[in-house]
Amino acid sequence: MSAQTAGADTLPYMFDRAAECMPRSELKALQLSRLKTTLDRAYNKVPHYKKKFDAANVKPGDLKSLADLARFPFTVKTDLRDNYPFGMFAEPREQLLRLHASSGTTGKPTVVGYTKADLNMWADLMARCFATMGARPGEIVHNAYGYGLFTGGLGAHYGAERLGCTVVPISGGGTERQVTLLQDFGATILCATPSYALNIAEVAENMGVDIRKLPLRVGIFGAEPWTDAMRRDIEARLGIEAIDIYGLSEIMGPGVACECQQMKNGLHGWEDHFLFEVVDPDTMQPKPMGEAGELVITTLTKEALPMIRYRTRDITRLSDEPCACGRSHVRILRVTGRNDDMLIIRGVNVFPSQVEAVMVGFPGLAPHYQLVLTREGALDAMTVEVEQAPDFKGDRQRKAEEVVHHIKSLIGVSCKVVLKAPGEVPRSQGKAVRVKDERKKAN
Ligand code: DLL
After folding, report:
1. Whole-angstrom Cα distance, residue 97 to residue 117?
2. What's the mean pLDDT in 230-234?
3. What's the gap in Å between 309 CA and the centre of ligand 1?
4. Position 6 pLDDT exceeds 50
5. Is the CB–ligand 1 distance for residue 314 below 6 Å?
6. Which of 108, 135, 146, 340 could hold 172 in an S-S bridge, CB 3.0 to 4.6 Å?
7. What is the Cα Rg of the chain in Å?
8. CA distances from 253 to 55, 81, 97, 155, 250 (A)
9. Mean pLDDT score, 223-230
10. Which of 144, 82, 136 is nearest to 111 (CA)?
11. By three-state DSSP, how is residue 314 classified?
């Protein structure tokens, strides 16, 4: 594959125009043939899939159309845990060039593996994302995603190199040094979690560095849910354009989908390599295009770890409306949260991102917050701990009450709000911890 510049037409710069603008009928035909190969690979090479398909009484040969995929069983995170460490691999371990894993704080880690072809495909798709989000060959990419077992650091690293960028592999942490290197090297692209980007902005301010005056122009942010309110705040604080990128280790890592710089209105999901479905998480029935539900992804080209109908737990909607950027792939409309992150506060369902959307940008508040869960009798209660802005001079109690009313009127949930002094809410080095669960201690 090679990078292409815009021709006489008005299409933007793309890394792989033939794939990104493929007519939908061609995309569907490609998906069907790749899906057949993937189902064969899974059934014949992974005992877990053979057992699951046999139990559901389906064979790879039963797939005649894309709609037939609905007959095949789902795959869930515990399937990876139950087959720890290498039981889900469709290739002998000797054929794998790399392993990544989740942290495993709630049990055994989930392990994912890549063949040479898988790593190649990942680098190509990440290069495609970088170009889609506005990066160009020759730019300096400051990569503050964590390097290590987490897929963010190395995933972004090889994609940026593949596009022809100069990578600064700084990883997360050591924030003052990050600011110094942003000044000294003059990176134009920043890769980080949105919460860590805010941390960088704050440390720069404390160092007396006006980060908005640096050459930095685009931020490539993902790995955790974030809202448009947070986007506006980050853009103002860093003086950059903030763009959303999505991915998960079980499917590949970062680069499964990303926004285009032109529209920033939904993340193009690369349908030549993945098949996207949205299902009702209670009934597991497919949802029509445009309706919210759980995102389910099937890999179409992965060798080492084919994933059949993987339940991501991420809540989103799909859109097949054409995008003005010219790319033909379906869009994932922002991941608003995970269904396992949903809180039920005094009977009201609420996602942390809804609270974020209300608070970020609220006058007098800084964008640093945590939600503390406690038990009051039989019900869960929530205290929002949010920092006051450093220049806030008003009455803290009154400000807290204002926020309580605002949350109640916009999302219908009653909670307590505690205004914290600047610096009191822990800062993120990677994925932010938004919820502190103190319910178990109380029991
Ligand atoms: O977070 C991969 C990644 C790295 C994506 C860097 C983007 C940038 P995991 O650690 O396996 O992989 O976590 C995957 O993070 O299922 C979502 O719940 C969440 N997530 C990732 N990107 C976004 C996003 C990486 N843009 C889990 N918006 C996913 C909301 C996101 N949630």
Report:
1. 10
2. 97
3. 18
4. no
5. yes
6. 146
7. 22
8. 30, 18, 15, 7, 7
9. 96
10. 82
11. strand
**276, 314, 342, 351: residue to mutate for ligand 1 pocket, most atoms within 8 A of CB:** 314
Please give the Cα distance from 257 to 36 (Å, whole number): 23
Mean pLDDT score across all residues of the chain: 95
* Nearest C-alpha neighbor of 45 from the set 86, 101, 79: 86
What pLDDT is attached to residue 8? 41
On the CB side of 148, CA atoms within 13 Å amount to: 10
Q: How far apart are CA 64 and CA 72, in angstroms?
A: 12
Q: Tell me the CA–centroid distance for residue 188 and ligand 1, in Å.
A: 23
The SS3 assignment for 97 reads: coil
Pairing of strands 218-222, 189-192: parallel
CA–CA separation, 331 vs 317, rounded Å? 8
Distances in whole angstroms, Cα of residue 53 to Cα of each of 46, 71, 74, 78: 11, 9, 10, 17
Give the mean model confidence (pLDDT) for residues 125-149: 98
H helix intervals, 46-135:
47-56, 77-82, 116-132
134 CA to middle of ligand 1, Å? 20
Helix (H) or strand (E) holding 157: helix 151-163
DSSP for 222-235? ESS---HHHHHHHH
CA angle 362, 366, 368 (to 5 degrees): 115
Could you tell me if 440 and 405 are in contact, meaning their C-beta atoms sit under 8 angstroms apart? Answer: no
Tokens of 29: 């035909």
Q: How far is the CA of 378 from the centre of ligand 1 (A)?
A: 33
Share of the chain above pLDDT 90, in %: 92
Q: How far from the centroid of its chain's Cα atoms is residue 172's Cα?
A: 17
- pTM for the whole structure: 0.96
Contact 161, 190 (CB under 8 A): no
Q: Could you identify the residue written with the tokens 């505690």?
A: 418
- 347 pLDDT band, cuts 50/70/90, is confident
320: CB partners within 8 A, 6+ apart: 24, 289, 330, 331
Residue nearest (by alpha carbon) to ligand 1 atom 6: 152
